[in-house]
Design brief:
By secondary structure, this protein is an all-alpha fold. It is built from four helices and no strands. α1 (3-17) crosses α3 (59-83) and α2 (24-46) runs antiparallel to α3. The radius of gyration is 17 Å and the shape is globular. The two termini are 29 Å apart.
Length: 105
């Protein structure tokens, strides 16, 4: 899916569900929570969880979990960008420029 199309889809979907009505501080909390879930998914892939109350999953299952969690993080980032009318394409470009200037490459 094209980036701008996805950003608009997130905007519409979250609005339809009422999720866009949450204040920005709540949204930041959700982003922090989802970031922790990304860390948990990576841990499962890299070193395992070693918990008797969890089923050991295959690499592919763990990878799929990571993909889903990265999507949740991206969704929260998009909601924040949308709140301030910032296209993700601009975020990508500014980030790239910043790194090129910083590291001269």
């Amino acid at each position: 899916m094209e980036l701008n199309v996805f950003q608009q889809w997130v905007k519409d979907y979250y609005k339809e569900r009422g999720w866009s009505d949450l204040n920005i501080f709540t949204r930041i909390g959700f982003l922090a929570e989802e970031t922790g879930e990304v860390a948990r998914a990576i841990r499962a892939i890299e070193i395992g969880r070693d918990r008797p109350d969890e089923v050991v999953s295959s690499y592919e299952e763990n990878k799929q979990e990571l993909v889903e969690e990265l999507g949740d993080v991206l969704g929260n980032i998009i909601v924040i960008a949308n709140k301030y009318d910032i296209p993700l394409e601009e975020v990508f470009n500014v980030h790239q420029e910043k790194l090129h200037k910083r590291y001269k490459g």
